[in-house]
Amino acid sequence: MSTARFAALAERLLRDGIPPRRVRRLIAELEVHFDDLVAELRSTGLSASESEREAAIRLGPEDALAASILARPELHSWARRWPGVAFGVLPLLSLPAQFVLSMFVAAQVFSLATHHLGFTALRPGPVPWICAGLQIYALWIAPILAAGVASYFAARQRAPLLWPIAAGTVIALVGALTNAGLDWSPTVPHGVLSGGIGFPPRGLSQWLRIALTLLVGLSPLLLLLRSKGRDMTREDLHQSA
Amino acid sequence: MAQSPSLMSGVPELLVLRLTSAREMYGYEIARAIRERTHDAISLGEGVLYPALHVLEERGFLRTRRRTVSGRTRVYYQITPAGQRRLDALGEEWRRIAGGVQSVLAST
User: How many A/B residue pairs have CB atoms within 8 Å?
Assistant: First the structure.
């Protein structure tokens, strides 16, 4: 038997807020059950098509299956119960959290390098590279990650597009306004690690950060919309055939 | 014969807990056991069994184990200690109600 038999049910469950992992398991169990029923019915002498028809009746109509699953609040994902929190607030909060975390790691690296490993501004070793990497992460990658993860999970759970798009846009704008840097030279022997947020955007790089965050961060949603468009075209063709 | 939903309320849970208290079973086995042991008196849409199984697992009354046999992966369900306590309570309640209903039916 093929997964196609339950594909419409799976899509319906995802759209109505059942988490993908649970949908996968439910569908897998229904498939195995269907196959067992077909085997049982065939052993009584029914033909393959009769067995499949009877098995589908015994399993129950798709509407009843969907209703019995959707009626159980325990089976719904928390993210779909509170989409604003899951796909809006949490990704937004993750941005300052990632920024602070990367600055904290940079400070620890700097502290370890200067106090325990003996690096100095004149002999900095890999410290500037590590700090530059963390700076790139905080300014460029963190916003993309925040928007991308929200949009990926929203696409996977067929959540309303409003939240991830709104959150992605705000993340892109806030992300473009943040700045961070390490000043470590012979004139500043102890080094200064700085970070902040401010207006206005100071040039091309800010616009580039906004564009990259929106483009890469929201790409899971764009891919979903594209694949949905393809499925709809296929359905249209089947209907017209 | 059509079954009254209100009379059937809670019955699948009771049957599933009872059946899985004897040994671990997968969904098809449970549905088949219900059919056979009730002589088709209780006929659920068999697919409807799965949300009930998942909810019982969510509530900690059942635990699951995956086993692959002949290339097919089946999910086996078995009662937990919490499920056993739930079964005892439900069974007691069911016997009390059934006894009460039976005595009314017998007296009229």
Answer: 66
In terms of CA atoms, which chain B residue is nearest residue A55?
B46
Residues A56 and A31 sit within 8 Å (Cβ to Cβ)? no
pLDDT tens by residue, B6-19: 556 678 889 999 99
Please indicate, yes or no, if residue A128 is contained in any of the structural domains.
Answer: yes
Based on the fold, state whether residues A97 and A142 are members of the same structural domain. yes
Q: To probe the interface with B, which of A13, A21, A33 has the most B CB atoms within 10 Å?
A: A33
Give the whole-angstrom CA distance, residue B58 versus residue B47.
Answer: 18
Output the pLDDT for position A164: 86
- Using a CB-CB distance cutoff of 8 angstroms, which residues of chain B are in contact with residue A71? 51
Chain A contacts in chain B segment 15-74 (CB below 8 A): 26-28, 31-32, 44-48, 50-52, 54-55, 58-59, 72-74
> pLDDT value at position A205?
82
Q: How many domains does chain A have?
A: 2
User: Domain of A189?
Assistant: 79-229
| Model pLDDT for residues A170-196, shown as the tens digit of each residue | 999 888 888 887 777 777 777 777 777
Burial pattern A79-112, b for ≥16 Cβ within 10 A else e, equals bbeebeebbbebbbebbeebbeebbebbeebbee
Confidence of residue A240 (pLDDT cuts 50, 70, 90): very low
Whether residue A236 lies inside any domain: the answer is no
Which residue type occupies B72?
Answer: R
Question: How high is the ipTM of this complex?
Answer: 0.85
A202 has a chain B CB within 8 A of its CB? no
Domain identity same for A93 and A40? no
* Residue A33 contacts B, CB cutoff 8 Å: yes
Cβ distance B55 to A75 less than 8 Å, yes or no, reads yes
